[in-house]
Amino acid sequence: MRGGRLRSVRRLTQRKFRLETGEFLAEGPQAVREALAYGFARELFIRAGADAAEFVEAARDAGVPAYAIAAAELARLADTVHPQGVLAVCAWPQRTLADLPEDLKLVVVCAQIRDPGNAGTVIRCADAFGADAVILSTDSVEVTNPKVVRASVGSLFHLPVITGSPLEQAVAELKARGVQVLAADGGGTDRLDVMADSGNLQAPTAWLMGNEAWGLPDEHAELADRRVAVPLWGGAESLNLATAAAVCLYSTASAQRTDHIDH
């Protein structure tokens, strides 16, 4: 492994070079495992002396070159304080609204999400509850940000993540496909539990989630078919973005699977 290549890989810790190259870094066993399994990985770097037979074999099966490098070199590539010993250079496919799956049942749309930890967690929740896609509107955090990748714990590689689309365009595309768009809004006139009980969540659904700091402005919330509040029965004033997304996605996924459970 030549030092010049390591310098090029190190540049991927900077947003500018990730955008220029279409490459990014996935760090840690779970993320690397999924990157290899789903065809995103292009190179693998392993801390010299680490027990990494699983990754060497997976890289060989995938036709991905694997290199052992010193711990100090790996630390310069990693975003975490204590690197976990394995890291992959991955290629990021630029996906647009045209890449949405044909038969949409459940989608989450994040309007100008800025916190990378929240973005990664929403992607992980969407994956866990069987969503078909995640859309991050224009002005959202860069999806290959190391903290987004880490917080998604490999889920980033499992489902389409659409970026760079204006919110209005994304909502219009979903409605054109027959998907109801529900805005998660603490002041909404509809309640999540009532909608679940009434069967309204069984229809193909996209959840529109607002920014962490200012929520959904009226002009964005009005793009939705309904504004839906998650009822809070305790003393908390509100839920954070990722938690609200998890509750809404779980409720919808459960409602959409009711027929399967009944039969």
Question: If you had to describe this structure to a student in words, what would you say it looks like?
Answer:
- The radius of gyration is 20 Å and the shape is elongated.
- Helix 6 runs parallel beside helix 7 (146-152) and helix 6 (116-128) packs parallel to helix 11.
- It is an alpha/beta fold.
- 39% of the residues lie in helices and 20% in strands.
- The mean pLDDT is 92.
- The chain has helices at residues 3-10, 15-21, 29-37, 53-62, 71-77, 116-128, 146-152, 167-176, 192-198, 218-221, 241-256, 258-262, and strands spanning 23-27, 41-47, 66-69, 86-91, 106-110, 133-137, 161-165, 180-184, 190-191, 205-209, 226-229.
- The chain contains twelve helices and eleven strands.
